[in-house]
TrEMBL record:
Protein name: 5-hydroxytryptamine receptor 3A-like
Domain Neurotransmitter-gated ion-channel transmembrane: 265-488
UniProt entry keywords in alphabetical sequence: Cell membrane, Disulfide bond, Glycoprotein, Ion channel, Ion transport, Ligand-gated ion channel, Membrane, Postsynaptic cell membrane, Receptor, Signal, Synapse, Transmembrane, Transmembrane helix, Transport
Coiled coil: none
Organism: Coregonus suidteri
Keyword Transmembrane included in the entry's annotation: yes
Region (Disordered): 384-408
């Protein structure tokens, strides 16, 4: 039995790596030989225009191979598109739907012929299914392409191919809705190969970004909610592990037309707020202002429910217009609470006409009334005290524009009733007893009139306390609404300028 040394076996039989390398070289040699034969077979016959069917059939049979004579040289593909329509923007799902006219160029090194030998034919159309096409996709694509496909491409005699296709692009986009309805969206379209790395396929824009933006603005047919602002982009390299892909990123900037939302949302809301402000001019003592304001709040709530479908909503945050509506509703509620307070003050007669506390007369009827320039009724203004009043009396005395009862509660005047008796006769008995009854009735009537006068004075005091508070709270309410409106307008202007 012969014994063979292990080293001799290794010398006679190559390893698995060497076998793989030998096999790869053989395949490349066969492939390059076939490519050379394929490139030389694209000929024309005399009396016929264009390449022969047999020569092109050889190219069609090798559709699976990248059309490059030297596989170390990448195929360069040029991309350009025209934004034809903005079909919709879904803020809830963060999806942008557009319609593009996409144009793709690349060089097929096997489809080359001499135009002079082929009857002057420089361009022919061929079915796209019979040719190798770079696998260019949009990385943000999130739905099936249901647009109509163009089945043909144009092939130049130099081997340059142009493929025009229509693309209904449903792409993911990070939508910012805080400044709605004055928002500007910036969505990206990233074109790149799915399988071929940078060593096989290189990408570049076919037109400048300014030209693509100008063409899109010229051919944009939709005049709905969105308008195109600009298109710009850049080329870059995407790295994933040890492989690199060549990509082109286009940024499409679109701007919302806010007229629809201003007319349907902002103007009606502003009108309701204006009515709420004007309701302060209703006399609170003779008109049920609270019922009016409650009806207004109910109408505003129904308005928000109807217009809820027009407002966008995302998980990232609430748009500024939603905050605007919420604050407007809160201001209406505050206005209703103010009306409740004033109504409670004006109807203090249910509390047996309690006298106005001294601190209320000093703070509200004197200082607050002077601060808000409250005009007292002329019939309540009385002349000041006499010259003989002391210095202390002058310190507590209100000014000449305030009523005389501002700092001193009204006290009823109790005048003792003198019972008038008739002349007493010799027997000591009243001659006219009816006179005593009349005097008693007059005394009761005087006491009743005095009480009514006191109640009127107290009621008038509480009414003026309510009026002064109403004027004060109304001015505070106006200041709050003015500051709030200025903040909202400034925030919207800042976002629009950005």
């Amino acid at each position: 039995m012969r014994v063979v040394h292990v080293s001799r076996l290794k010398a006679c039989y190559p390893s698995a790596e060497e076998l793989e390398e030998i096999e790869r070289r053989k395949v490349l040699e066969i492939f390059e030989e076939e490519i050379h034969l394929c490139q030389c077979d694209l000929t024309c016959k005399e009396g016929h225009s264009g390449p022969t069917y047999e020569s092109m059939q050889t190219v069609f049979d090798r559709i699976s191979f990248r059309p490059a004579v030297n596989l170390s040289n990448p195929t360069i593909a040029n991309i350009s598109f025209t934004l034809y329509a903005v079909l919709g923007v879904n803020e809830k799902t963060q999806i942008l739907t557009t319609f593009l006219w996409l144009r793709l160029y690349w060089h097929h090194q096997f489809l080359v012929w001499d135009a002079d030998d082929c009857g002057g034919v420089t361009r022919i159309s061929l079915p796209v299914k019979q040719l190798w096409v770079p696998d260019i996709i949009v990385y943000e694509f999130v739905d099936d392409d249901v647009s109509q496909q163009c089945p043909y491409v144009y092939v130049n005699h130099t081997g340059h191919i142009r493929w025009d296709r229509m693309l209904r692009l449903v792409s993911a986009c990070n939508l910012e809705i805080f400044s709605f309805p004055f928002d500007v969206q910036n969505c990206s379209f990233t074109f790149g190969s799915y399988m071929h790395t940078i060593r096989d396929v290189r990408l570049s824009p076919a037109l400048s970004f300014e030209e693509m933006s100008g063409n899109s603005k010229q051919y944009l047919e939709t005049s709905g909610e969105w308008e195109l602002v600009n298109i710009y982009g850049e080329t870059s390299v995407l790295k994933f592990g040890i492989d690199e892909w060549d990509i082109i990123t286009f940024w499409v900037v679109i701007k919302r037309r806010p007229v629809l939302y201003v007319v349907n949302l902002l103007i009606p809301s502003s009108f309701l707020m204006l009515i709420d402000i004007l309701s302060f001019y209703l006399p609170p003592h003779s008109v049920d202002r609270a019922s009016f304001k409650m009806t207004l709040i109910l109408g505003y709530t129904v308005f928000l429910l109807i217009m809820n479908d027009l407002l966008p909503s995302t998980a990232n945050g609430t748009p500024l217009i939603g905050i605007y509506f919420s604050v407007c509703l809160a201001l209406m509620v505050i206005s209703l609470l103010e009306t409740v307070i004033i109504t409670n003050v004006l109807h203090s007669n249910s509390k047996k006409y309690r006298e106005v506390p001294h601190w209320v007369r000093v703070v509200i009827l004197k200082h607050v009334a002077r601060m808000i320039c409250y005009q007292w009724p002329k019939e309540l203004v009385k002349p000041t005290a006499s010259r003989g009043s002391t210095r202390d009396d002058k310190a507590d005395r209100p000014d000449s524009t305030s009523p005389s009862w501002v700092l001193a509660p009204a006290t009823p005047v109790h005048t003792p009733v003198q019972h008038t008796t008739s002349n007493i006769g010799p027997g000591g008995v009243s001659s006219v007893p009816e006179l005593r009854q009349i005097c008693q009735d007059l005394s009761d009537l005087r006491a009743h009139l005095t009480l009514m006068q006191k109640e009127d004075v107290l009621q008038e005091q509480w009414c003026h306390v309510g009026y002064v508070l109403d004027f004060l709270l109304f001015r505070i309410y106006l200041i709050l609404i003015s500051c709030y409106a200025m903040v909202i307008i400034c925030m919207w202007c800042i976002w629009v300028n950005q």
